[in-house]
Structure formats: C-alpha cells, structure tokens
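Note on ligand handling. Small-molecule inputs were canonicalized before submission; formal charges were left as drawn, and no protonation-state enumeration was performed. Where a ligand contained multiple stereocentres, the stereochemistry in the source SMILES was retained. For fe (ii) ion, this procedure yielded the string shown in the input block below.
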Amino acid sequence: MPKAMDDIKKILKGMLSRQTYAHSISTYKTALGLAERFGVSDKKVGLAAILHDCAKSMPYDELIYNVEKYKISVDKLELKTESLLHAPVGSKLASVVFGITDPQILNAIRYHTTAAPEMSDVAKIIYVADFIELARGHKGVADARKVAEKDIDRAMLFILRDKIPRLVKKEVLIHPRSIKALNWFLEKEKKK
Ligand SMILES: [Fe+2]
Ligand SMILES: [Fe+2]
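Structure output:
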C-alpha cells in the first residue's frame, strides 16, 4: 500500500534539499493540472510527481550503494552519471520506502531524466511537468508550457528538442534512450 500523501511529504522533507523539495511540490501541482487536462489518473500522476526526485539529494556514493544493495538494473552510462542515476534509484526507493507497486508510477520515475520511447501518459506528464513547473525559468519553458496546454506528445517532442542540443553544447554524454525517445516522438508526430 502506498503511504498517505502527508506521510510521503514528511519523509521526503527529510530526504531532499529544500530546493528539491520545493521543486517536487511544484512538479506535483503542475502534473495534477496536466492530468486533469488530459484525463489521466490523478492518483498515479500525483504519486509519481511528488516522488520523481526522491533520490535527487543523495550523494553519488550513496546512489551507488543503493544500486548494489537493491541490484538495480542500470547501464554503464547511468552508473557513471550522477544526474541520471537518481532516476533508477528513486524508482526503487519509491517501491521500498514509499510502498509504490504500480509499474506505471515506477516507470514514470525511472525514465523522468532520459525519457523513453513508448512512455505511458503518466510518464509523459511527469517528464513534461518536471520541465515546465512554475519555478523553472530557463529559455524554452514558456513555449513548452504553451505546447503542453494542447498536446502532451508534442510537448515531449518540444522538450527533447530543447534539452538534447543543450546537453550537446555542454559537452556531456547523451543517453541513447533520449535519442530513441526523440525519434519515437518525431515519428509519432509525423503520423498525426
Ligand atoms: Fe530528476
Ligand atoms: Fe525533477
């Protein structure tokens, strides 16, 4: 059984930096708005959104410790990239600490950093809400918000097209799953 929302918030406060806790609450509110707009389960979306960054404030060695402890399936690139590793670890913690068993919620947390082809509506909403939540102010967010008012797949495509070139400019490694997601949403868009 998942824990009650008040208990989740209390535990999260102890796990996260103030900034990440505030971001989680903001992502939660934004995601619920998207869930209503697109007719997706607000219960699933709410749990996935509030918990998506539950491992974000964990130091790298602790992330690695959890990967080994729970035998979490991660690839080489995720293993050496702290900013990617909090997603698979967070998904596992959502299960063992917060009692989440629903695969849609766990997958939404698992893929909230890289995105993936064939994401569920819950996962798409978490990915988009994480990017457009109200505290975010970087370039592209205002336009992404407008796109997300109408079409969640188009919002996914918009954000992947915004994020990937920025990562290229930063000269960091790009996870191949993000490229696969970009291609998948591009093909979906062309079929519309
Ligand atoms: Fe995250
Ligand atoms: Fe986040």
